[in-house]
Specification:
Keywords: Magnesium, Metal-binding, Thiamine biosynthesis, Transferase. This protein is an alpha/beta fold. The chain is built from nine helices and eight strands. Helix 1 packs parallel to helix 2, helix 1 packs parallel to helix 9 and helix 7 runs parallel beside helix 9. The structure holds ligand LCLJCK34, ligand 3NM and magnesium ion.
Length: 204
């Protein structure tokens, strides 16, 4: 299990629950290192069986299973970790509750915030959006220079997100991104496994 490579994130519309496990397995076969469940609407009770199956699937492929926002759900299903942002539960409390698990924190365009989050125990930080995101159209665009600035001062891995495609990710990886987090470009691909393999080639 590694904090490097392709990080795929589920989406209530693009990975509907009746197709999600099949689609995620294709991404894992294609080499995804991390899978995040991102669901803003459904109840924990509805999500628990999916989380358990996703976690088992991830572990079969030596990948990491992360839950977005919902720390209590992550704990209930013993996920490998959580991802939180500015509007989510407090980082210090989350670190306390999720000792031994991976904690990823969104830092948007701020290296200063990333340094603080590293200090508070984040295992990786995420910057973005780098391009207009079909999933989060209101997300602010941040300059690519934040990646190289972050890499100069951070010890923990840097994840990039927001409007990423195979074509536009190469430049971000060359600037130092350790993880490339993707929703639309992976799940709308005609062949999800092949699309993931294309991302993996960018890291070689
Ligand atoms: C890997 C990764 N990076 C960033 C985010 C965004 O988190 P956040 O800002 O909390 O926004 P929401 O995803 O919760 O809408 C993420 N989920 N994953
Ligand atoms: C969940 C998320 N967070 C973002 C941020 O900028 O912090 S952008 C984003 C959505 C990423 O989806 P897509 O690959 O479809 O653009
Ligand atoms: Mg969040």
């Amino acid at each position: 299990m590694k904090l490097k490579g392709l990080y795929v994130i589920t989406d209530e519309k693009l990975t509907p629950y009746d197709k999600m496990l099949d689609m995620v397995e294709k991404a894992l076969k294609g080499g995804a290192s991390i899978v995040q469940l991102r669901d803003k609407n459904n109840s924990d009770e509805f999500l628990i069986p999916y989380c358990n199956q996703l976690k088992d699937l991830c572990h079969k492929y030596d990948a990491i299973f992360i839950v977005n926002d919902r720390v209590d759900l992550a704990l209930k299903v013993d996920a490998d970790g959580v991802h939180i942002g500015e509007e989510d539960p407090d980082v210090v409390e989350v670190r306390e509750k999720t000792k031994g698990k991976i904690m990823g924190v969104s830092c948007y365009g701020s290296v200063e915030r990333a340094l603080q989050m590293q200090e508070l125990g984040a295992d990786y930080v995420a910057f973005g959006s780098f391009y207009p995101s079909p999933t989060k159209p209101k997300s602010r665009i941040v300059p690519k220079s934040v990646i190289s600035e972050a890499k100069k001062v951070l010890k923990i891995p840097v994840c990039v997100i927001g409007g990423l495609t195979v074509e536009n990710s190469k430049e971000l990886i060359d600037l130092g991104a350790d993880l490339v987090a993707v929703i639309s470009d992976v799940w709308t691909a005609p062949d999800v496994e092949k699309r993931c393999q294309e991302y993996l080639k960018l890291f070689k």
